[in-house]
Amino acid sequence: MRAVIVPYVLSRAFVVVALGISRLVVDELAVVPRPLAVDQGLLAWDAAWYADIARGGYDAVAAEGLRFFPLVPLLARAVAWFPGVDTNLALLLVANLSAFGLGFVLYRLAWFERHDDAFARRAVWLVYLAPPAFVLVMGYSEATFMLLAAVVLLALRQQRWWVAAFAGLLAGGCRPIGLLLAVPALVEAVQQRRALTGRDIAARVTAVVAPVLGCFAYLTWAVDRTDDFFAPFRIHEDPTRRGSVKFPVTNVVDTAQSFLDGGHNTAGMHLVTVALLAALLVVLGRRWPASYTCYAGAALLLSLTASNLDSLERYALSTLPFVLAIADVADTEARERVVLVAAAAGLVGASVLAFTGVIVP
């Protein structure tokens, strides 16, 4: 409880303070035009879409709203049935309760892998204090997805295939990247495969295909609204979102060129993130099971195919093996102190930049 509650509460305090700072700065400087996100607060950016979908369904938003998968809006709508809880509050409750649960499952996952309480505690602090973690406080789907992903990874490592399948099915209906959970499931399923019964094989196959089925169920429902089965994915190809698909190496080179030319304000930040994630992928390859490495590698590769890397840091946070790798590297008291202080400062800074519209979370 101590390992979870303290960083959980502290991270939320940091984000709320950052929102207050953002509003104070915008008011004092009389910024024109006034950033929409600073007034929307915890319901800004993607959270506004989730709130509208939860309130009125997909008919209440433009067709581009189909890119937001339905699990979180459905959960918010269910919570809104409670007396005194409107849709906005329900969405924030879903996100923050999911984030609370994430801390406990991540602690258990980290302890299972290392049997080290200090390491497990450090992983929890990092997932709450990492700079992109302000989305775990807002009405985003990341917290719910990360909770489900943590359950999937822990269940896979414990060979609890049906638990992994159920959580994977929900994850597939939570975010498009839920599909990637089929990667660690496949890697774990093919290991230790001798003397398997028919029931064992069925359980493993179900765990592998469940994230795909969760995504497929939503795509099947959504096709009636666009006549394009892959519309929820194609919508992301708009230049203001992920943009067109590009070869990862070429994309990184183009981002570097954009940074040198001064054509993109956050290009330098994304380049640092790419370098950090590449280094962490090496750490995972050397110290962690193959399922973690393959999952993180697939997530990084997919992220780098987007010509617009604005949400790269958020996607990296939702890929839990990267968080575990940082916790693994910060294995001394001095390193841990430096990493956590830097992360907390980054969390406040990134929150201010997001609320003032400087960066796109």
Task: Write up this protein.
- The chain is mainly α and 361 residues long.
- 70% of the residues lie in helices and 0% in strands.
- The chain is built from 17 helices and no strands.
- α7 (142-157) runs parallel beside α9 and α8 runs parallel beside α10.
- The chain is globular, with a radius of gyration of 20 Å.
- The model has no long low-confidence stretch (mean pLDDT 94).
From the structure provided, what is the oligomeric state, counting identical versus distinct chains? single chain
Question: Helix count, per DSSP?
Answer: 17
Please provide the ordered H/E string of secondary-structure elements: HHHHHHHHHHHHHHHHH
pLDDT under 50 segments (min length 5)? none
Radius of gyration: 20 Å
- Give the tally of β-strands: 0
Secondary structure class reads mainly alpha
First CA to last CA: what distance? 29 Å
| Proportion of residues in helical segments | over 70%
Mean pLDDT: 94
General shape? globular
Mind summarizing the main beta sheet? none
Q: What portion of the residues fall into strands of 2 or more residues?
A: under 5%
